[in-house]
Amino acid sequence: MDLSTIDSLLATAPGQIAGAADLETLDQLESVLVGRRSPIAELRKGLGQADPQDRPRLGQALKAAAETINEQLDARRVVLESAAEEALLESDRVDVTLPAATPARGTHHLITQTMEEVTDIFRSLGYQIESGPEIEIAYYNFDALNTPLTHPSRFQSDTMYVESFDAEARTGGDELLLRTQTSPMQARYMEANPPPVHIVVPGRVFRTDTWDATHSPVFHQIEGLAVDTDITFGDLKGTLAHFALEFFGPSAKTRFMPNFFPFTEPSAEMHVWFNDGWLELLGCGMVDPNVFDAVGYNSEEVTGFAFGMGVERLAMVKHGIQDIRHLFENDLRILGQFR
Amino acid sequence: MKVPLTWLDEFIDLPTRDPEQIESALAQLGHEVDEIARLDATFEGVVVGRVEEVGPHPNADRIRFCRVNDGSAVHDVVCGAWNFEAGAIVAYARVGSRLGLDTDNPFELTAKELRGVTSNGMIASAAELALGEDQEGILVLNELGLATDQDLGRDLEDLLPYPDLVFDITITPNRGDCMSVLGLARELAAFWNIAVREPKVDLKTSGKPIGFSVEVQDREACPRFAAREVAEITVGASPLWMQMRLTAAGQRPISNVVDVSNYVMLEIGHPIHTFDAQTIEGEQLVIRRAKEGERLKTLDGQDRELDPADIVVCGQEEVLALAGVMGGESTEVSGSTNRVLIEAAHWDPPSILLTSHRLGLRSEASSRFERGVDPNLPDLATARAAELIAGAGGGSVKPGAVDVYSKPIKPRIVKLNATQVSRLLGPEPDLGDSADYLRRLGFGIEKVADDLLLVSVPTRRPDVTRPADVVEEIARMHGFDSFADRLRRGNNGALKPEQLGARRLAAVMVGAGFCEAQTLSFIGQSDLDRLRLPDSDHRRIGITVNNPLREEEGTMRTTLIPGLLKALVTNVGRSTNNVALFETGSVFFRAPDRDDPRIPDQPNMLGFAAIGAMGSAGINGSARPVDIYTATGIADLISGSFGLAIEIIQDQTPMLHPGRGAGIHLDNGVRIGFVGELHPAIARDLGLAERVIVGEFETAPLLASRDDWSIVEVSEFPSAVFDLAFVVAESVSAGSLVATVEESAGREIEAVEVFDEFRGPSLGEGKKSLAVRIDLRALDRTLTDEELVPIRGTIVEAVAEQLGGILRGTQ
Question: Would you say the ipTM is above 0.95?
């Protein structure tokens, strides 16, 4: 048996394998070099006729030659396969900056976000969120809050009244109105619950205000009320100063100056230092004894503080909104900015 | 209230003139300063001069030639004004003086030739010196009471209240006493613990005593009526110093009589009314409430019908003035008046408030009476006014005065114990400091025990009646910022289930790509008309607002849909064509609330509306515009998020497309809302050209549904999936087929989905094919074919029996 064919095969195979440019060529080459009709296969078939003494040596030589070639084929295959994969991926390449398939992005309204932000600050202090009706009787909006029948805020120039929904003629405290503040819930809550009280009341309120950059006939307020046997003016200040820090950040300074509200005495206005200026932010005060009397609390035994803040005002201050109408026009170019 | 610092100087010697310190003192006391204006002379080098000679100009008729003495020399000056003669003391602007320093173009006077005569400087008018509006005549300083011969050569600036600061202050509704220079001076005096120079009038009288008599018929309306009379006056301009003070305080000078009224009101806080005394027949006045049908032509020329609640000042017959609000035309002081009756009365504050509001007449006087004026001030007020009018108008004050004050109002005594202070304010200030603060504010203090004070409240402070009111006085004197802060915690900050639910509901809608809207709570009747709601619909008639801002906002909304549609229209009108909005809020019905029948039912609703596509499909796709299936999908999404079983039942919902709308029902059959495509005709009315989807639900059933729930195990075995296509009548809905399959397939059913709807001639008229994919899976085993065959049979049988459906290919 002449192994010279093998020798020449081993000599030429590496060049041929390296020259295979793609997997198809390599497959053909594999069949030529080590396939069933390859010289090696043919020689193996003739091994039976060889001298029995030579058979092991010849057999081993053929096997080794086949292994060598196979190794070379496999190595080349790995190279070609990875190149093919790369080519495939390359052909799949796209411009990732073309328009995306974007799900619609919804937003929570800034008023809602602000109400939640504020009420969450008070929840973290242990205040419960309450809510009350928007069409209210004058008693809760005014009388129970120490606001007499002749008070200017009760005039139609300030308050919107609605017709009676039943046949009843209504006067004085029974008149139906659109609540002008979230404060009526103070009286409703205290009527129904004994002290101590720690609540915040977010909600929609109404005034006879014509639209301009800072006024809207519909807006939102957050009322707060704390009543117990040991509440002083310092509690009012400390709690609201804490709120200001949480809401406006650690650089927020606060100051309090006297003001007047029928349902608190003493009454105060809190100013907050924000963006290089003092802003009037909210009204507050110690609950007037007449309010306690109206709801059946003993004004000799309990004291409390109350506060009310405008949600739109907070949102406008914090986000640099110059015109309150942006908050009620529902223009998606504005709503889309809320996040 | 605008207060010039130089006016405050009349009553107190402030320890500082630093505007910031004064502002901060006022702020601590509760008087917010809105603005501080600085007033200063707008000229330099203008001196007091005397016109020595005045004669015709040689070459001109309209101007005159004058010689003006400035104390050191006499100058030739040409002047175009005619309101002076030789001897007049004038403002002489020398050559080299500068005018208009407050403008962009200040200028320096030079010698100037006027028609052949050199004018060395000029004689200035009020307008040229920015001291007033008059530019016709020059300032005649001696007539204006500003300068005399003795002042010759002095800088005019030195005779004027310059420089000055004017504080514009917001006075809270409880502090009528602070609507005056004196009132604010008292506050600042208390702050710095300095003395107040109380105003005193040394009235010189002459002639016959006052002849007026006044009958007060309604003592409640008018607890006090005081008046004085000044005779032989000449109505003209008031002194310049008074005009300047009034101008600085924001009042326009008018005439000496009117200016004095305003001046006294601003100075001590009591409004004054002046009558032309000659026009009051019989010198008799009656104070009473108006009678039905009475009328009065007020100073502003309006003929007004009076209300029996109005307080009026009457003559023998007719009404002369609306007390505390506005005088009448018939008794108005005019240029020919030579006798005035000066009235200062104490009126019932609520009556004044009601009258001024009813007539829309808010005046400086009414705003003080509303807040409450010191009832013990009228005598001083009439005396001060009489003194000033006589001074300004050259008249004489008649001896005597009218003063009907049968029940003098005395200082109120409030008992204040130490606990009443400490329970509101804490340990500081103690009772001693508190007493000191009150004394500084002019309250009388009597210490009757270690822990008890009797506080006598000045009558100028009707707002202080109770211990809490006195405590506020102590607190503001102590300074609100001096109290130690303390954080007050409660013990119940958890959200209630319905509050958690409301937040989840909003989050679901936002996650689905809807933006939250805030629409008004008002709608118009036309909004309901446009929705084509039938007359029987409970949303058809809303609760109306008695005093709406606009007709089209005259009804409380009964549905959120009109507001949302308006927002869609706004956005589409601004070229935003893909819009998806939702809102949660109250709607209002003409029925009593379940918990409180005194108020109407006002349930919380969720509404949504959308037009165009939701999201973008990207470069390779096309975004699907919203339609009925988007709407029903939202219903599924919401019910799924709350674990609530709902049924979507096609129906004829008002405002929806008759074939593309559905009611949303709970499994107990209750309809909680609707979803669908807006009726195309309504969309067309609104100018919306594409399909619009809307939906509205009551939120209470959703929020109540989040009961405690337990997890359900999922199977680890493979599912068996097979498809069945049924030929059914057109009237059979996909929903009913799914329901029938779900019911009949047994407990191993995992999912049923319709994946194809087909119509064709092969199926026959009025028929359609619905194909469902049925997904079965058991918890404990892999389902075998032997098990599936009977299930499949049961399903086919049930569909045939209940819906008349036949397996496709076997019909």
Answer: no
